[in-house]
Amino acid sequence: MPDMSGFSPAFQRLGAALAAVVLQQQETLAEFLPREDWSADLTARTYTSGGVTVRVSLLGSYAARERTWLWGWANPQFGDDHPSVEPTLVIRGLGERLGIPEFTTPEIDLSWYTGPAGHGGELIAMAAGGVLGGGGYIGAGYDGGSAYLHVDDPQAPPATWDPVPVPRLLMNAVSLFPHHPQLTLARLLSHHRVPFRETAGTTEARLPGGGVARARFDDLGRFMDWHAEHPAPAPPKTPVTP
């Protein structure tokens, strides 16, 4: 299990709730937006790659050498009133209401992080992007680090429900935010309006189109498996002959 001790419990819980939803949306965004030579105009709130242009806002940036995250509103080149930053201020407001210091601290030291993500800034971008919803987020690399942009554009398609990748999404999400896997699954199901009920160690979902899926968790709350049962197809009707 990765060391998450440098993150607040409130941030870890929020990240766990959003992680699978965000990962699925990232896969959908990757299919829509080519990752080729890119350009961005943050004053115009545009990002262009492979001939596709989308509207974006600036979440923040990660400095590779210093291993720090800097929010767009705290960057002296931008600030609260910049067109690309103003749409993201809801994240800071949420942090103030829920007591999430990662959302309210201007610059965050992430030098302690050694988990499976490329760096701790990736986890902050995931949680921030999950709060905003929309089309996903983009890591735009530059000399010395990466800027993280949130895709706020109706042409970017939303992820749709598919039970097949659920166990993979859940395992990947839990590898990043490991402490609340049953919450991770619950939020993914509720995001897609899939009815479910939880008991100790089990989540049972009623699948669209019929069938039931069950996820099991061990005594420590760790994800064990996901099994989906689909209804048998109806037999073909026998034609009636006179």
| H/E topology pattern | HEEEEHEHEEHHEEEE
What integer value in Å does the Rg equal? 20 Å
Class of secondary structure makeup:
alpha+beta
Compute the average pLDDT: 92
Could you please describe the fold and organization of this structure?
InterPro entries: DUF6882. It holds the Pfam family DUF6882. With 242 residues, the protein is α+β, with helices and mostly antiparallel strands. The chain is 29% helix and 26% strand. It is built from five helices and eleven strands; from the N terminus they run αββββαβαββααββββ. It has helices at residues 9-32, 89-98, 120-132, 166-176, 181-191; strands at residues 38-41, 46-49, 52-63, 68-71, 107-109, 136-142, 145-151, 196-199, 202-206, 212-217, 223-229. Helix 1 crosses helix 3 and helix 1 packs across helix 5. The radius of gyration is 20 Å and the shape is globular. The model has no long low-confidence stretch (mean pLDDT 92).
Which helices and strands appear, and what pairs or packs with what?
Layout: H1 9-32, E1 38-41, E2 46-49, E3 52-63, E4 68-71, H2 89-98, E5 107-109, H3 120-132, E6 136-142, E7 145-151, H4 166-176, H5 181-191, E8 196-199, E9 202-206, E10 212-217, E11 223-229
Antiparallel strand pairs: 1-2, 2-3, 3-4, 3-7, 4-5, 6-7, 8-9, 9-10, 10-11
Helix pairs in contact: 1-3, 1-4, 1-5
Pfam families: DUF6882
InterPro entries: DUF6882
